[in-house]
Specification:
Chain lengths: 957, 163, 90, 131, 115, 503
C-alpha cells in the first residue's frame, strides 16, 4: 500500500496548491513541499529493506482482463530514481518559491509540478508496464503544461508543442513495444517480464519491441536523432528546466533502459543501437554545447551529452558499464541541477542568460560563483569531484569496448566527448563569472537571498561529498541500483586513483588538456561554427509538421467541403460496390417461382410509369411540371398496389402523394420555379451513370427476389391465421398495424408528430427577427397573380364536399379494422378535405372561423395511442395488448368494440394535427410576406351588395 | 333548438343518405351512425357556411336535376360528334358573356356548373361584380341563341327554386 | 362471355385513353393543358379500377376509386390555384 | 333476364369505353386549350359514369349485392367537374389569354381573373394571427 | 410481370438518384420522393406478386397476398411523408435564410462563425 | 415474470414529450423542470435495467402479448441495458448544459424534441425486431433533425438539409435491406433471423449477403464509417453545441447495431455470410480512424475538430467491432462508453468557447475569453481523453482495443498509435491557438460573458464520468466482457424469445 501511496501523494498534492494559493505563496510552497517531503519520508522508510536486497511490492487489482494493474515495486533502481525525483523535487519547490515573479500564477505552477512529480514517481515504481506507460505519457503531458507555462511566449508554446509531439510520439511507439513485450511473455507485470530474458530475446518480435521501446526512451531522453526538442523546452521557467531537463524527465528514458536492461540488453542489436546512439549523442551534443551562448542552452546540450554518455554505458551491456551508468546518473543529477539553478539565479539577478553579455560576476555574486564552479568542475570531470569519478570509469569502459571489428573508436570518441565537456564546463565558469566586471548588465546583479541559493548549495555539497567519499556517500546506493539493473549482486569499487597505467587516466588528461585548448581558441572556433550552415531543429520540425498539418487541412477540407452531391455519389458507388462484392462472393441459385403473365392494363400502366419517370429526369428543371409528373407516378404506384391486392396501400399512397404534392406546391411558391443548368454535360452523364448503376442493382435485386419463393415459411401466415380470432379484425394489414405491430405504428405516428413540431419550430425561427424575416418582409411574388383569390364556385362546392369528405374520413376510419382503411388514411382524408376548405377560402379565414389547437391534437393523438398501450398494464399484460368484444345492444346489430380502435384514433388525430400544423406554419410564412387575410369566404358576392356596381354607386371607386 | 341542432337540414339529409350509400348495407346500426354523423358534421362545418340558401321548391329542384342529367347525356353525344366528325376549322368556338339575375352564390354556382356540364359550354369566369358569367362555347354558330337558351332553360328554373 | 369481351374492350379503351392523356401531357403547349391531361388520367384510372372490381367480382376497389376522385380533384384545383395565385391556401 | 342484364352491362361498358377514348382523343385533336377543356370534362364523366353504373348493375345482378356507393363516385365527379373546368379556364385565361381578346362583360366591370384590384372589394385584415 | 416491375423499380431508382445528384434542393427532394416510391414498392414485392387476393380475412378466400409487407410499406410511407415534409420545410427555410436554394455548401468559407 | 420496466425508457420520454407539447409549450421553466425530471427518471430506470440485465441473461418483452417472432419484442440484455444507461447519462449532462447555456430558449420545442430523441434512441437499443429498429431509427432521426436546426440560421439550415437528405438515403437503404431479408427469410425478429440464417439454403446465400451488406452499411452511415462519413462534420459542426453533444450517442447506435447484428445474426461462423462483414468493415474502420485523425489535425474550426474527433473515435470502435470476438467487442463497448462521454464533453467545450468568441476558427487567435483557465483545463482534460492519452479512459480503451486485436498487431497498432499522434498534435495546436496564443494577442482583459454555472456542471459531470470509468475500469470490463460474451453467444438472447419449434 505504501508504494501506491508514494506514487499517489504528488497527485493528491497537485490538488492543494490551487486551494492553498489564497493563503499566500509561502503557505502554498510549504504545503506542496511537505507533500513531497512526506513522500520522500515514506520512501525512506522502505529504503532499509531495499538496501538489504529485498523488493518491496504493492499490488492493487485494476483491470485484470487487460493485465493492467496498479502494481508497484521498489528495488534499488526504483529507490535511486524515486529518491532523486522526490529529493530534487523538494529542492526545486523551495527554489521556485523565490524564483517565480509576482505575476506568475504560482498555484498553477506547483500543480503542474506535482503532477509531473507524481508521474515520474509512478514510472519508477511501476511493476506493470501498462501502468508505467500511463505515467510515462503523463510526464509528457505535464511537461507540456510546464514548458508552456509562460503562455505569452511563442517559444514556450512552440517548445511545449514540439516536446509533446516528440515525446508523445515516442511514448506511442513505446506503447506498441511494451504491448509486444507483454504479449511475448504473457504478462504485463514487470517482475514477470524481467524473469523471461530467453523467451523475449528468442522471439521474432524481439527486434520490433526493442526498437519501439528504444524510440520511447530515446525521444524522452533526447538521444540522437531526437535530441532537438530539448533546447527548445528551455523556454520553460528555470526551475522547470532544472527539474525536468536535468534531473528527472529526461532520465525517464535512461531509467527505462536500465529497467529493461536484464531482458533487452546483451544482444548485438541492443549494443549497436543503444551504444551507438549514446556515443553519437554524447559527442555531438557536447560539441553543440560549446557553441551555445545561452546559459540554459549550453546546459541543455550538456545534459543531452551526459545522457548520451549514460545511454552508451547501458548499451555496452556489461555489468560493469551498467554500474558506472548508475553512478553517473547520481552524479549528473547533483551537479546538473545545481548548475541549472545557478544559471537561473544568474538570469534572475542579471536579467540575462547570454554569455556574451555576462562575465565578471565572480565578485558580484560570490556565493553563486562558488556553487556553480564546484558543479561545473564536476561536470568537466575534474578531481576529486563526483563527476570525475564516474567519467573515469566511463572512459575505462569505453576503452575496453570494441565497436564491431574496431577496438579503439569507442575510446577515442569517448575521449573527444569528454574533451568537449571540459571545454564547455570551463567556458561556463569563465564567461559567466571570470573576467572583468562589466557595466552593461541589464540589471545590477548580486547574490540572491538564502532561499534561492540554498538548494543549489546543498547539491554542490553533495557533489563534493560524493567526490571525496564515494564509497561512503554513494556506493551503497550504486550497489543497490546496479544490482537491480543487472540482476546480479554488484559491489562497486569507486576510487580516485586507478594507477598510472590505467588508460582512463591518460584519456582524462587528454580531455582536460584538449578542452582547455579548445576554450582558448573558442573565439575563432565560434566564428567558424557560426559560418557553418546548420540545420535548425525547430525549422526542421516545422518543415515536417507544418506542411503536414497544412496538407491535412487541405485534404480534410477538400474531402469534406460540403459538396453533398459528391458525398451522395460516393455513397452510392460504395454501397453498390459492397453489395455487389457480397453477391459475387456468395452462392446464388436462380429463382424457380412461376412468373405472372403480363396483361394489357398493367403493361399500359408500366408504360405510363416509365414515360413519366424518364420525363422527370428530362424535364426536372421545370419544377411545376415535375410535380405534375410526380402526381402521375403516385397515381401509377397506387394503381400498382391496387392491382396487386394491396387496397390499403393504394389508399395510403394516393392520399400521401397528394398531401406531399400540396406541401411542395406551397413551398414552391417561395422557391424559384426553374432549376438552372449547373452541371456540365459530362457531369450529367456521370451522374446518370452513377444513378443507373444503382438502378440496375435495384432492378436485379427485385427481380431475383420476385422470382423466388421464401426460404422459410413467412411469419405472415401467423398473422393471417390470427388476425380475426386474435386481433378481432378481418383487414389483416390493419390488424398488423394496430395490433401485431402496433408498436411500429406508435413509433410512426410519433415521427409524424415530431415532423410537425420540427416544422413549427423552424417556422418560428424563420419568423423571428433576422435575415430570413427581412427577406420575407421584402418578398415579391415572382409571377403575376390573377384576381379573384377565392372563386365562388369552389367555395360553394366545398360547402358540400367538405362535409361529405369528412364523412368519408369517418367511414374509412371505422371500417379500417375489417376492410381497407384505418386511422392513418382517415386522418389524411380529413386533412385533404380541410385543405380543400383552405384552398377555397384561405387558411387564415378558415382558421378564424374555427380555431383548433393543432399542437394539442398531435399531443392528444400520441397520448391516446400511448394510453391504449399503457392501459394493458392495468390488466397485467404487456404494452399494446389489445382487447375486443362483440357487443349486442338492442335494437342494434352486434358490433365489435376494440381497444385497437382507440389506438387508431390516436393515429388519426396525430396525422390530422401534423398535417394541419404544417399547413398553419406555411400559412404564417405567407402572411409574413404581406399576404392579407380575407374576411369573406369568397371575393365576389352578388348577394351582399358589396359588388363593384354598388361601390361605383357610392363613389368609392 | 332544432334549428341549432340541425343548422343545415338539407345537408344533414344529404349526409344521412351519403352514409347509407357509403356503408352500402342497410342495418339499424348504420342508421344510428348515419344519424349521428348527419348531426355532428354539419355542426362542425357550419362555421364555413353561414348564409345558407333556402330551397323553396324541392319538386322543381328534382325536376331540374333530371333535366340536367338528360342534357348531360345529350351534351356528351354532341361533343363526341364534334370531336369525331368536325374538322378543326369547322369548329367555331366563341366566348359568350351571359348576364344573370341570380343573386345567391349557391344558385349561381349551380347555374355555372350546369352550363359546364351541358351542351358544348364551359363556365370560364365571372365578372368582378358577379352579374355576368363568361362562357366558352366549343361550337357556337349562334352565340346569342346559346345565351338565351341558358337563361330560359336553366336560370329561370333556378330562380324559381332559390329565389 | 359477352361481359368479358365488353370488359376487355372497356379496359383497352380506358387504357388507351390513359396513354393518349400521357401523350398530351408531354406535347401540351401550356401548363393548364398538362393539368387537364393529368385530371383526365385520374378519371380514366378511376374507371379502370372500377372495371377491375367487376372483373374480380369484388367491391374492394370502391374506396380506392372514391379516394382517387377526391385527390384528383383536389390536386387539379391546387395546381390551378398555384398558377393563378402562387399560394394555394392564402 | 340475366342475359339481358349482361347485354345491358356490356353495352354500358362499351359506351363508357368509347366515350373515354373520345374524351381523351379530343384532348389531342382539338385546336386550342379552351376547346380541349370541353372534351374530358364531359366525355370522360359519361365514360366513367357508364362504367360505374355497369359496376352497380353487375354487383346487383350477379352478386346479389345492391351496391349503391358507385353512385357516390358518379355524383362526386359530376359535382367537381365544373369546378375543375372553371379553374382550368381561369388558369388558361390568366396565363395565355389577353383580356382584350375576350368580349367585355357588358356591365362595366372586368372579368374577375384580370381584376387585380378585386381584393379591395373584400375587406382584409392586415394583422397577423397569433397561434 | 415481374420483369416489368423490376425494370420500373430500377428506372425509378435511377431517376431518383439522378435528381438527388442535382445541385438544388428542389430536385433533390423530388429525387428522395422517387427513391422512397421505389423502396416502398420494393418492400411490397418482397411479399411476392399476387393479384386478386387482398389480405382481407374471408373464409372463402383462395389465399391472401402477404399482408406483412403491406403493413411495413404503410409504415414506411407514413414515415417518409413526415420526412419529406420536414426536408421541404428545411429547404424552404434555407432558401429564405440564404437567398438561394443550393444544396452544396462551402464549408471552408462558411465555417467558423459563431452559432 | 415479465417486467414492464423494459419498455419504460420508450414510454416515459414519449409521454413526457407529448405532455410538454400539450400542457407546457408556453412555459420554458415548466418544460425545464418536467423534462429534466423525466430524464432523471429515465436514468433511474436505466440503472434498474442494468441491474436487471446483470441478474438475468436476457429478458424479452412481448409487445401486444404476441409470441415471437410474430409480434414485436423488446429484448433487455446487458448490451441494450448498457446503451440505454449511457444514453440517459449523456442526456442529463446535455440537458443541464442546454438549460445552463440557455440553448433551449433559442427556439421552440427543444425539450419535447429532446424527449422524443431519447425515446427513439432507447427504442432502437431495446428492440428485438429488425423493422422496428428502422422505425425507431426514424424516430430518433427526425427528432435529431429538429434538434440539429434548433435556433435556425443559414448555415445550420443548409447543413440540416444535407443531413436530412443523406439520412433519407440511408433510411431508404435500410428498407431495401429489410425487405430483402424478409423476402428471403420471411421473418423480422432478430433472434428468429439468427436461427434461420444458420440453415439458409446455399442458393439464397448470395442475395442474403447483399442484404447483410446493405444492412451493415446503413449502420455504417449512422456510425460515420468511411466512405459514408461525409455527412458528419457539416452536421455536427453546425448543430447547436448541446445537440452535437447528444449526437455523440447517435453514432454509437450504428456501432451498437453492427455489434448486435454482427455478433448474433451474421457472425463469422455463419456459412451464409462468413467473414464478409468483417472483411468490409475492417479496412473501412481503419481508414475512418485515419480520416478522423487527419481531420483533427487539419480542422479549420473547433467545431470541425470535435466532429473529426468523433469520426476517429468511431474508427477505433469499428476496428474493435470488426474483429467480431467477445474480447474485442468488450473493448469496443468500453471504448464506446468512453468516446460518448468524451466526445460529448468536447462539443460542450466547443460551445463554451464559441459562445464567448466571435468565431471558432483555429486559424487565428482571438483575445482571451472569460473563464479561459477553467475552459482550457476542461479542453486539455477532454483532449487527453479523446486522444487516448493517460490517465483517462481513452488510454485504457485504446489499450483494450489493441490488446484485443493483437493478432493483427502490425497494422492495427500502427494505425491506432499513429492516429493518436495526429490527434495529439491536432489538439495541441488547437489548444495553443485557442487558449495560449490568446495571451499574446494584445488585450489581457478577458471579454466578459454571462456565467453559466449549470453548463460547467454538465461539462464537469461528463469528465467526472470519464474519471469514474477509468477508476472502475476493472469491474466495468468484467461486466462488459460478460455482456460481449452473451452478445456473441446469442443463446440466451434467442432462448428468451421463446421461438416456436421448427417455425
Ligand atoms: Na392483441
Ligand atoms: Na400506419
Amino acid at each position: 500500500m505504501s508504494l501506491a501511496l508514494i506514487a499517489a501523494l504528488p497527485f493528491l498534492g497537485a490538488l492543494l496548491p490551487g486551494l492553498m494559493i489564497r493563503a499566500g505563496k509561502n503557505a502554498c510552497a510549504a504545503v506542496t513541499g511537505s507533500v513531497t517531503a512526506l513522500a520522500l519520508l515514506l520512501l525512506g522508510l522502505n529504503a532499509p529493506a531495499v538496501l538489504r536486497g529485498e523488493v518491496v511490492q504493492t499490488r492493487i487489482e485494476w483491470i485484470p482482463s487487460l493485465g493492467l494493474n496498479a502494481n508497484f515495486f521498489l528495488d534499488g533502481l526504483g529507490l535511486l530514481f524515486a529518491g532523486l525525483i522526490l529529493g530534487i523535487g523538494l529542492l526545486i519547490i523551495l527554489y521556485a518559491r523565490f524564483y517565480l515573479s509576482k505575476s506568475d500564477p504560482m498555484g498553477q505552477f506547483y500543480t503542474y509540478l506535482m503532477l509531473f512529480q507524481g508521474a515520474m514517481v509512478g514510472i519508477v515504481l511501476s511493476d506493470n508496464i501498462l501502468l508505467l506507460l500511463i505515467f510515462w505519457e503523463l510526464t509528457s503531458l505535464s511537461s507540456f503544461l510546464l514548458i508552456g507555462y509562460w503562455k505569452h511566449l511563442p517559444e514556450g508554446r512552440q517548445g511545449a508543442r514540439m516536446a509533446l509531439t516528440v515525446t508523445g510520439a515516442g511514448g506511442l511507439a513505446m506503447i506498441a513495444g511494451m504491448m509486444i513485450l507483454g504479449n511475448i511473455v504473457g504478462s504485463y507485470d514487470l517482475s514477470v517480464i524481467l524473469q523471461n530474458k530467453e523467451l523475449i530475446q528468442a522471439s521474432d518480435w524481439y527486434l520490433p519491441a526493442l526498437i519501439l521501446i528504444l524510440l520511447g526512451c530515446f525521444t524522452k531522453s533526447a538521444q540522437f536523432p531526437f535530441h532537438f526538442w530539448l533546447p527548445h523546452a528551455m523556454a520553460a521557467p528555470t526551475p522547470v528546466s532544472a527539474y525536468l531537463h536535468s534531473a528527472t524527465m529526461v532520465k525517464a528514458g535512461l531509467f527505462l533502459m536500465a529497467r529493461m536492461w536484464p531482458v533487452l540488453a546483451g544482444t548485438p542489436e541492443w549494443f549497436y543501437i543503444v551504444a551507438t546512439a549514446g556515443l553519437v549523442t554524447m559527442v555531438m551534443a557536447a560539441k553543440i554545447a560549446l557553441f551555445k551562448d545561452d546559459l540554459k542552452a549550453l546546459l541543455a546540450f550538456s545534459t543531452v551529452s551526459h545522457l548520451g554518455l549514460i545511454t552508451m554505458l547501458l548499451g555496452f551491456g556489461t555489468v560493469e558499464a551498467a554500474t558506472v551508468a548508475v553512478f553517473h546518473i547520481i552524479n549528473h543529477a547533483t551537479f546538473k541541477a545545481a548548475l541549472f539553478m545557478s544559471a537561473g539565479i544568474v538570469d534572475h539577478e542579471a536579467h540575462t542568460r547570454d554569455l556574451k553579455r555576462l562575465g565578471g560576476l565572480r565578485t558580484l555574486m560570490p556565493i553563486t560563483f562558488t556553487i556553480a564552479t564546484v558543479a561545473a568542475l564536476s561536470m568537466a570531470g575534474i578531481p576529486p569531484l563526483n563527476g570525475f569519478l564516474s567519467k573515469e570509469l566511463m572512459l575505462e569502459e569505453a576503452y575496453h569496448t570494441a565497436w564491431g571489428p574496431n577496438p579503439w573508436v569507442m575510446g577515442l570518441l569517448a575521449t573527444i566527448g569528454a574533451l568537449f565537456s571540459v571545454a564547455y564546463s570551463f567556458r561556463f565558469i569563465a564567461h559567466t563569472f571570470l573576467g572583468p566586471v562589466r557595466d552593461d548588465y541589464p540589471h545590477k546583479p548580486h547574490d540572491p537571498g538564502f532561499g534561492m541559493w540554498a538548494a543549489p548549495a546543498f547539491l554542490a555539497v553533495l557533489v563534493i561529498v560524493i567526490g571525496l567519499m564515494p564509497m561512503t556517500a554513494s556506493a551503497w546506493l550504486v550497489n543497490a541500483a546496479a544490482s537491480a539493473v543487472t540482476g546480479e549482486v554488484v559491489t562497486a569499487k569507486i576510487t580516485h586513483w586507478h594507477g598510472l597505467y590505467a588508460p582512463a587516466l591518460w584519456m582524462s588528461v587528454a580531455a582536460v588538456g584538449g578542452g582547455l585548448m579548445l576554450l582558448g581558441g573558442h573565439k575563432r572556433l565560434m566564428a567558424l561554427w557560426n559560418a557553418t550552415p546548420r540545420p535548425e531543429a525547430k525549422a526542421i520540425f516545422d518543415a515536417i509538421v507544418e506542411p503536414f498539418a497544412a496538407l491535412s487541412r487541405r485534404v480534410t477540407d477538400a474531402m469534406h467541403d460540403g459538396a453533398m452531391t459528391r458525398y451522395v455519389a460516393i455513397a452510392t458507388l460504395a454501397i453498390v460496390a459492397a453489395a455487389y462484392y457480397g453477391f459475387r462472393t456468395g452462392t446464388h441459385a436462380a429463382g424457380t417461382r412461376e412468373l405472372m403473365p403480363v396483361s394489357i392494363v398493367p403493361a399500359m400502366g408500366w408504360l405510363a410509369m416509365v414515360v413519366a419517370t424518364v420525363a422527370i429526369m428530362v424535364f426536372h428543371r421545370n419544377r411545376l411540371f415535375t410535380l405534375v409528373l410526380v402526381g402521375i407516378l403516385g397515381l401509377m404506384i397506387a394503381g400498382t398496389f391496387a392491382y396487386f391486392s394491396a387496397p390499403d396501400l393504394a389508399l395510403t399512397q394516393i392520399s400521401v402523394e397528394v398531401a406531399a404534392v400540396m406541401l411542395m406546391l406551397l413551398a414552391l411558391n417561395f422557391l424559384p420555379k426553374q432549376t438552372p443548368v449547373e452541371s456540365s454535360a459530362p457531369r450529367r452523364a456521370w451522374d446518370l451513370a452513377v444513378a443507373g448503376i444503382a438502378g440496375i442493382g435495384v432492378a436485379a435485386l427485385s427481380y431475383a427476389l420476385m422470382t423466388r419463393n421464401f426460404a422459410y415459411d413467412s411469419i405472415a401466415a401467423y398473422h393471417i391465421a390470427n388476425a380475426k380470432p386474435g386481433g378481432g379484425g378481418t383487414n389483416i394489414v390493419n390488424v398488423i398495424l394496430v395490433d401485431f405491430r402496433g408498436y411500429d405504428t406508435f413509433g410512426e405516428i410519433i415521427v409524424l408528430g415530431i415532423a410537425a413540431l420540427v416544422i413549427y419550430a423552424l417556422t418560428e425561427a424563420l419568423l423571428r427577427g433576422g435575415p430570413a424575416n427581412d427577406r420575407l418582409l421584402a418578398w415579391k411574388p415572382d409571377q403575376k397573380r390573377a384576381g379573384d383569390r377565392h372563386p365562388m364556385m369552389l367555395v360553394v362546392a366545398t360547402r358540400l364536399i367538405l362535409p361529405v369528405a369528412l364523412m368519408v374520413g369517418v367511414f374509412i376510419f371505422l371500417r379500417g379494422h375489417n376492410l381497407p382503411g384505418g386511422g392513418f388514411i382517415a386522418g389524411l382524408v380529413v386533412s385533404i378535405a380541410l385543405i380543400m376548405q383552405y384552398m377555397a377560402s384561405g387558411f387564415a379565414w378558415t382558421q378564424r372561423r374555427q380555431r383548433f389547437d393543432y399542437h394539442a391534437i398531435i399531443a392528444a393523438g400520441v397520448l391516446i395511442a400511448a394510453a391504449t398501450g399503457i392501459g394493458s398494464w392495468l390488466a397485467g399484460v404487456p404494452f399494446m395488448t389489445t382487447n375486443f368484444a362483440y357487443i349486442t345492444l338492442w335494437p342494434l346489430e352486434t358490433f365489435e368494440v376494440a381497444t385497437a380502435a382507440i389506438f387508431d384514433l390516436g393515429v388519426f388525430l396525430t396525422v390530422l394535427g401534423a398535417v394541419m400544423l404544417t399547413l398553419a406554419s406555411l400559412s404564417r410564412i405567407a402572411i409574413r410576406t404581406g399576404e392579407t387575410v380575407n374576411t369573406q369566404p369568397f371575393d365576389i358576392d352578388p348577394s351582399e351588395g358589396r359588388t363593384l356596381d354598388d361601390l361605383d354607386a357610392k363613389g368609392a371607386r | 333548438m332544432l334549428q341549432r341542432l340541425f343548422p343545415h337540414p338539407l345537408l344533414s339529409l344529404l349526409l344521412f343518405v351519403t352514409w347509407m350509400l357509403l356503408v352500402n348495407t342497410f342495418k339499424i346500426g348504420s342508421l344510428v351512425m348515419a344519424g349521428i354523423l348527419a348531426t355532428v358534421i354539419p355542426l362542425l362545418t357550419a362555421a364555413y357556411w353561414t348564409n345558407r340558401p333556402k330551397v323553396r321548391n324541392i319538386p322543381a329542384f328534382a325536376a331540374y336535376v333530371l333535366l340536367v342529367l338528360w342534357d348531360i347525356i345529350i351534351a356528351n353525344i354532341q361533343v363526341a360528334k364534334i370531336i369525331l366528325f368536325y374538322r378543326s376549322d369547322q369548329i367555331k368556338s366563341a366566348w359568350i358573356p351571359v348576364p344573370i339575375d341570380l343573386k345567391t352564390p349557391e344558385a349561381i354556382t349551380l347555374l355555372a356548373g350546369t352550363i359546364t356540364m351541358t351542351p358544348g359550354t364551359v363556365t370560364a369566369d365571372m365578372s368582378s361584380c358577379g352579374r355576368v358569367l363568361l362562357i366558352h362555347s366549343l361550337h357556337a354558330p349562334d352565340p346569342d341563341a346559346i345565351r338565351d337558351d341558358i337563361k330560359s332553360r336553366y336560370e329561370a328554373r333556378l330562380k324559381r327554386i332559390f329565389e | 362471355m359477352i361481359l368479358d369481351l365488353a370488359l376487355n374492350f372497356a379496359f383497352v379503351c380506358f387504357g388507351l385513353g390513359l396513354l393518349l392523356n400521357l401523350y398530351r401531357l408531354f406535347t401540351a403547349p401550356g401548363v393548364p393543358d398538362r393539368i387537364l391531361a393529368l385530371d383526365t388520367m385520374v378519371i380514366n384510372v378511376i374507371a379502370i379500377v372500377m372495371l377491375f372490381g367487376i372483373k374480380l367480382g369484388t367491391g374492394m376497389f370502391f374506396e380506392i376509386a372514391l379516394l382517387f376522385a377526391m385527390t384528383g380533384f383536389i390536386s387539379t384545383v391546387a395546381f390551378c390555384k398555384f398558377l393563378l395565385r402562387g399560394d394555394i391556401i392564402e | 333476364m340475366l342475359l339481358i342484364a349482361e347485354y345491358l352491362i356490356a353495352a354500358l361498358l362499351v359506351i363508357g369505353g368509347i366515350f373515354a377514348v373520345i374524351g381523351s382523343f379530343g384532348l389531342l385533336k382539338l385546336r386550342d386549350t379552351m376547346q380541349r377543356l370541353h372534351a374530358p370534362t364531359k366525355a370522360t364523366t359519361v365514360g366513367v359514369g357508364s362504367a360505374l353504373i355497369a359496376s352497380m348493375a353487375y354487383f346487383w345482378l350477379f352478386q346479389g349485392v345492391i351496391s349503391w356507393h358507385e353512385l357516390l363516385i358518379t355524383l362526386f365527379l359530376l359535382l367537381t367537374a365544373p369546378i375543375t373546368a372553371n379553374f382550368l379556364a381561369k388558369a388558361q385565361m390568366h396565363l395565355a389569354i389577353a383580356e382584350k381578346d375576350l368580349p367585355p362583360s357588358g356591365v362595366g366591370t372586368q372579368w374577375a381573373t384580370y381584376d387585380e384590384e378585386l381584393r379591395t372589394v373584400a375587406p382584409t385584415l392586415e394583422d397577423q394571427p397569433k397561434s | 410481370m415481374e420483369l416489368l416491375l423490376a425494370s420500373a423499380l430500377g428506372l425509378l431508382t435511377t431517376a431518383g438518384l439522378y435528381l438527388i445528384l442535382r445541385k438544388r434542393t428542389f430536385p433533390v427532394i423530388v429525387g428522395l420522393t422517387l427513391i422512397s416510391y421505389a423502396v416502398n414498392v420494393f418492400i411490397f414485392i418482397s411479399g411476392r406478386l399476387v393479384s386478386g387476393l387482398p389480405p382481407i380475412y374471408n373464409p372463402a378466400a383462395a389465399g391472401y397476398a402477404d399482408p406483412l409487407p403491406q403493413a411495413l410499406v404503410l409504415t414506411a410511407i407514413v414515415i417518409s411523408f413526415g420526412m419529406t415534409a420536414v426536408i421541404v420545410m428545411m429547404a424552404l427555410g434555407a432558401f429564405i435564410e440564404s437567398g438561394d436554394d443550393k444544396v452544396d455548401m462551402n464549408d471552408k468559407d462558411e465555417a467558423g462563425t459563431t452559432k | 415474470m415479465m417486467s414492464h420496466w423494459i419498455i419504460a425508457p420508450v414510454i416515459l420520454p414519449a409521454v413526457m414529450g407529448a405532455l410538454l407539447v400539450l400542457l407546457m409549450r408556453g412555459d420554458l421553466l415548466l418544460q425545464r423542470i418536467f423534462s429534466t425530471a423525466a430524464t432523471v427518471g429515465l436514468l433511474g430506470i436505466a440503472i434498474a435495467l442494468v441491474w436487471g440485465a446483470t441478474q438475468t441473461p436476457a429478458e424479452v418483452y412481448f409487445l401486444g402479448n404476441w409470441p415471437a417472432p410474430f409480434g414485436i419484442v423488446l429484448v433487455l440484455d446487458r448490451l441494450s441495458a448498457l446503451m440505454v444507461l449511457l444514453t440517459a447519462l449523456l442526456a442529463i449532462a446535455v440537458q443541464l448544459y442546454a438549460i445552463g447555456s440557455n440553448w433551449d430558449a433559442r427556439g421552440r420545442h427543444f425539450h419535447a424534441l429532446f424527449q422524443f430523441q431519447l425515446m427513439g434512441i432507447c427504442g432502437a437499443f431495446l428492440t428485438g425486431d429488425a423493422f422496428n429498429l428502422f422505425v425507431f431509427f426514424e424516430v430518433l432521426l427526425i427528432a435529431s433533425y429538429g434538434l440539429m436546426i434548433h435556433g435556425g440560421g443559414k448555415d445550420r439550415l443548409r447543413a440540416g438539409v444535407q443531413y436530412v437528405a443523406y439520412n433519407l438515403i440511408g433510411s431508404t437503404l435500410f428498407l431495401f435491406a429489410l425487405a430483402t431479408i424478409y423476402g428471403i427469410t420471411g421473418t423480422l425478429n432478430i433472434a428468429d433471423l439468427a436461427v434461420k440464417v444458420q440453415t439458409l439454403p446455399e442458393g439464397e446465400m448470395a442475395l442474403f449477403r447483399v442484404a447483410a451488406v446493405m444492412l451493415i452499411l446503413v449502420f455504417a452511415v449512422k456510425g460515420a464509417l468511411v466512405p459514408l462519413q461525409f455527412w458528419l462534420p457539416g452536421t455536427y459542426a453546425n448543430a447547436p453545441g448541446p445537440v452535437a453533444a447528444l449526437f455523440a450517442v447517435m453514432t454509437k447506435i450504428g456501432a451498437y447495431a453492427v455489434i448486435r447484428f454482427g455478433a448474433l445474426v451474421l457472425p463469422p461462423e455463419t456459412a451464409a455470410t462468413g467473414t464478409l462483414i468483417a472483411d468490409l468493415l475492417m479496412p473501412a474502420a481503419i481508414v475512418t480512424l485515419l480520416v478522423g485523425a487527419v481531420g483533427v489535425l487539419g480542422a479549420s474550426t473547433f467545431g470541425r475538430l470535435a466532429a473529426f474527433a468523433a469520426i476517429a473515435s468511431m474508427g477505433t470502435a469499428f476496428i474493435a467491432i470488426a474483429a467480431f470476438t467477445p474480447q474485442a467487442t468488450a473493448a469496443a463497448l468500453y471504448y464506446i462508453i468512453h468516446s460518448t462521454l468524451a466526445g460529448a464533453a468536447l462539443f460542450l467545450i466547443a460551445d463554451l468557447v464559441a459562445s464567448r468568441r466571435a468565431h471558432d476558427r483555429l486559424t487565428e487567435a482571438l483575445p482571451p475569453i472569460a473563464g479561459t483557465g477553467l475552459i482550457a483545463g476542461l479542453f486539455m482534460a477532454t483532449g487527453i481523453a479523446v486522444a487516448g492519452m493517460p490517465p483517462l479512459s481513452g488510454f485504457i480503451g485504446k489499450l483494450l482495443v489493441m490488446e484485443a486485436l493483437r493478432d493483427q498487431a502490425a497494422l492495427i497498432w500502427s494505425v491506432i498509435l499513429g492516429a493518436s499522434l495526429l490527434i495529439i498534435l491536432g489538439f495541441a495546436r488547437a489548444g495553443s491557438t485557442l487558449f495560449w496564443k490568446a495571451h499574446a494577442s494584445g488585450s489581457r482583459e478577458p471579454a466578459t460573458h454571462r456565467p453559466e454555472g449549470l453548463a460547467f456542471v454538465a461539462t464537469f459531470g461528463l469528465l467526472a464520468g470519464l474519471v469514474v470509468l477509468t477508476v472502475f475500469s476493472g469491474p466495468v470490463m468484467t461486466w462488459l466482457e460478460e455482456a460481449a460474451r452473451l452478445a456473441h453467444d446469442g443463446a440466451d438472447y434467442i432462448a428468451a424469445n421463446r421461438l416456436p419449434e421448427g417455425n
